[in-house]
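1st attempt posting a full record on here, be nice pls
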Amino acid sequence: MPILTRPDGTEAEDLHLSRRGVIGSLFFSGYALAALSAEAAPITTAADGLVIEEALIPNGAATPLPAYVARPAGKGRHACVIVVNEIFGVHDYIKDVCRRLARLGYVAVAPEFFYRSGVNLPALTDFAEIRKVVGQASIDQVDGDVRATSAWMKAQKFARGDRIGITGFCWGGAVVWRAAMVDPDIRAGVAWYGQLKPLIARAAELKAPVLGLYGGKDQGIPVADVEAMQAALKAAGKTGSSIQLYADAPHGFHADYRPSYTEAAATDGWARLLAHFKANGVI
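the predicted structure (as tokens):
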């Protein structure tokens, strides 16, 4: 099973095989095969004490935006976090991240950004097919869906619409940076190894502080890009935004269903996520 090395997917030159990698050498695998890795030990978070539901979020499209929602049961209003998926869609790992946040008292919402394709993305195993689906989601469309999600949150009786954060992984990491630029309802963002190169020149556009969590051994995001973004943030006076670089971590170090999972970096990054949200009023 190949290790995902880039925010937008593994390329042929990045291919490395794990102990059970023979089957993966036949084609680039998506979530469906990655979840079956011999090395995988996915974290499973219980749903007791939570409300788990699917929302249909109005976004101006003929068919509204589906989203996985996990939130604390009972009365009360809670701070919110938008959870942005990897290129593999809203699969079990992303849903589990939502439940982890919900158990900490958040309303966690994972929109199905690729729903317009009508494809069950997590079930795909051909990487060319996965890329085709992902490529259909334009930047403007995705950013609009993020704004629609935060607007929906503000209208829910169980949500604190004035306390909205966003976090995202891989493909979703870049979405986080952009959301902090274009969605005025976002108070803070945490981007896990999202592509930086197209966003460095836009650092001054940030309206909410972003914490970036990156791996020093990420073959798709060079340390030079991380350093360039750090310099751009400093030059723009964005003192609330920063990047934590884990020198020995690869791309996808938080993804506990893949061999790339790096427990020390994932655990530290999660603690930093919670501290960043708390420091910026998403609590």
